[in-house]
Structures are given as structure tokens and as C-alpha cells.
Amino acid sequence: MGCFPCFDSKEEEKLNPVNETVDIKQGHPTVSSNISKLSSGGDRLRARSNGWSKREIPSPKDGPGVQIAAQIFTFRELAAATKNFRPESFLGEGGFGHVYKGQLESTGQVVAVKQLDRNGLQGNREFLVEVLMLSLLHHPNLVNLIGYCADGDQRLLVYEFMPLGSLEDHLHDLPPEKEPLDWNTRMKIAAGAAKGLEYLHDKANPPVIYRDFKSSNILLEEGFQPKLSDFGLAKLGPTGDKSHVSTRVMGTYGYCAPEYAMTGQLTVKSDVYSFGVVFLELITGRKAIDSARPHGEQNLVTWARPLFNDRRKFAKLADPRLQGRYPMRGLYQALAVASMCIQEEAATRPLIGDVVTALSYLANQAYDPNAAGHGYRGSGDKDDKRQRDERGGRVSKNDEGASSGRRWDLEGSEKEDSPRETARMLNRDLERERAVAEAKMWGENLREKRRQNARGSFDGTNG
């Protein structure tokens, strides 16, 4: 699925003037969006005689005066790296253009090279935004930009190579010999992707709205560690007393938040909606939009919403390829998070920080499909009892043995096991987790204070 524009280019120019600046307050960089400001490969060759081969851009995380480097490549270098962009080097394509696997001759590093399609939906603006964003923003769950090429009319981006491809590759249209993702891996990917969004929304200043969160933009490195890629549509979020930014509607059908699609008013909650769609893809194994399915099932959100209110149909929401190898309690909690994220009203969706807390909790509940009763991993009679409780339709303890305050009665009322009620109980679990963490921190601080006092008393005695 590609990106779609909903207004004409004049409207875009009005809403996003060409001379706009990107000002991330953490490092106070201000960079004009005029493409001529980027050095070309030819500039780089000339600069080599002066001992320079990199373009320096301030880093947002290191503060003023500290530099990070985005390397500049010539088109010839990248053509050599990709064997002249041969078909056997081709990895895939998106709104920006084609992506190739390559190996830099200078360092031997394996990279992914993205070449701008001059007839595509994205152009110089998106190229520049991606260079700036990935030069300024750094996090383990964001893809690393190695460098770029702006030779003549050529526009290319060079990234670290992600050997496992995209999340989409592991969820949809799997060949028969390919193993589907297990439950633990799905929760791990969801938690990591949410952390990437959290960094953009809560750590960057002003916040950055990703605007194109979808399964094909989540890349996977070894160990299925997720990283967000494709920042060409990213926008700086509202500041001060502003509640939103108004912009041309760009995104991918099926992932785009309804209020943004209708009004062009963009907030961080727009990203939360898109995250909810991807999380539903992880849970169900279905595509956000699938025209091959029967009428009424083609739009994932439209199909899933009615099922949220009937506990007897929760199992229908689980990916059949999991073959029942998932914890029922974990499924309920995952559905609760997804249902909150895809609320029609943006104000009722959670902040991404709360989603990270919930998904980190779920990802840490390691599920063992080989254990008796398909339970969470544990040890001893306590875990056996917990598994027997789950088989009997009740779970009253977490893995650590702390009471969750929740009793899951699969024979009980629908209201008790609805995602709304599940969300309420999950929030109670999360509050307990926060309280435990705060208590531990308080205890550590107290012990440290006592050690310092004891040390001071000892020094005074021996003074």
C-alpha cells in the first residue's frame, strides 16, 4: 500500500512553506529545507582535498556544540556498492523509491540504499526531511542513517542493513516453508516499535509525529529487534498552546487516523491510532486492508471492533497460524491495548508512553507453548497451580506471585471480560508495577543515604 495525497500541491505549499525550519530544541539546530543546502557528492570530492569527507549536523541528544556525522556519497560510489543497482541487489520498494542491498567499497559495510523515484509520490522535501530527522534523532528503535547522495538530480539514502526485512514480510503472504512469528516475538516487536514512537513523541523537543506508522515501515534486525524507518512524512508536532498541526493529509489507507484523514489536523494521537492498527495486525495476522477477504472483513479495524465486545469471539481475533499457542490472559490484555489505541475519538486514546508501559509488561510475561496448559514460564507448584487455574478459567496471580487483583472467569459475564474491563484491570496491574518500582527506588535511595551518613560518621570519628 502506498501513500496517498488528499489536497493539491498549492495547498501543501501554503501549509508547509518551502523555507520552513526544523528546530529540535535539545540541540537547537535550525536547518533550512532548501535542498541546495545539502552537500552533493561533487562537493565531497572537492572537500577531500581539504581533509573533509563528512557533513556535520548538530545532534539533538548531545546538546549544543556537539557534532554527529552524516556521510556524503557520490552516485558512482553507491552504484558500485549495489553492483550498478542490479536486480539481484533489489530488496523492495515504497513511496520513496527502490531499495537495494549494497556493500560499501571503502569500509566493506553492508548497507541498504534507497533511491528516490523521480516520478514517485515523494520528492525533494521528503528526502530532506528524512536526512534531517535521522541525523537529529537517535534511538535503538529508529533505523540508523549512514549517509546520503545528492549528486545532480540523484537522491539516495544509505541506511544500516536490516537482515530480517520488514514486519510485513513476517506477517503477510508467508510462503509455506516460512515459520510464523510466535506470540512472544510479536509482543517483543510491538513493545520495541512503541518505544520508538515514544522517543519521537516524548523525548524529542518539539515532538515529532511519524505520520506513516505501518508494518512495512518497521524493519527487523537480528533477534527481531524492531526499528522504525521511512521518515519522509514526519512532521514536527504542536508546541505551546496549539493542540494540533494542520497539514496535507498523507499516509497509508487503513492506517490513517479518522480525524486526520477528515480534517488534516495532526496530533501524536494520530500515530497512536496507526500503532493500534499494526498491533491488531500482529495479534490477528490480518492485513490492515485486504481486498481478497469477504465484504465486511476487508478493513481490519471495521472487522475487529464488533468482536471486542463479545468475549466468546476473542479467539477469532487471534492469528490462526498461532494454532492456539498463546496465553488467553495475554490475548485479552493485548486486545485491550489495541482497542484503546483505535478509538474513534483521539482524546480517548492513550498516550504512547502508557502503551509502552502496558506492552513492556506483556512482553516480559514470557509464554511457553510447551508448558502444561500452555502457560507462562515459571517454576514449582505455584506455577503448576497457576496453569491449572488458567485451564479452569481463572488466573489470580502474576508470574512473580503478586496478586493482580483480577480473576478471569471464562464462564462469567461478557462485561467482565470485555476489552474495556480488561483495560481497566490491566491499568490496575500497571499501577501496581509502578508502585513496586517506586518502592524499590525509594528503598535504594534510603540505603544509599544511610551508607553516606555512616561514612560521614566514621570519617568524623577518625578525623
From TrEMBL:
GO terms for biological process: innate immune response; positive regulation of defense response; regulation of innate immune response. One of its GO terms (molecular function) is ATP binding. It is a lipid-anchor. Keywords: ATP-binding, Cell membrane, Kinase, Lipoprotein, Membrane, Nucleotide-binding, Palmitate, Phosphoprotein, Plant defense, Serine/threonine-protein kinase, Transferase. Residues 379-437 have a biased composition (Basic and acidic residues). It is found in: Cell membrane. ATP binds at K114. Residues 370-463 are annotated as: Disordered. PROSITE patterns: PROTEIN_KINASE_ATP (PS00107), PROTEIN_KINASE_DOM (PS50011), PROTEIN_KINASE_ST (PS00108). It catalyses: L-seryl-[protein] + ATP = O-phospho-L-seryl-[protein] + ADP + H(+); L-threonyl-[protein] + ATP = O-phospho-L-threonyl-[protein] + ADP + H(+). Its EC number is 2.7.11.1. Signal peptide: none annotated. Gene3D superfamilies: Phosphorylase Kinase, domain 1 (3.30.200.20), Transferase(Phosphotransferase) domain 1 (1.10.510.10). Residues 85-362 form the Protein kinase domain. Its main location: membrane. One of its GO terms (cellular component) is plasma membrane. Belongs to the protein kinase superfamily. Ser/Thr protein kinase family. PANTHER family: OS07G0668900 PROTEIN, SERINE_THREONINE-PROTEIN KINASE PBS1. This is non-specific serine/threonine protein kinase. It comes from Hibiscus syriacus (Rose of Sharon).
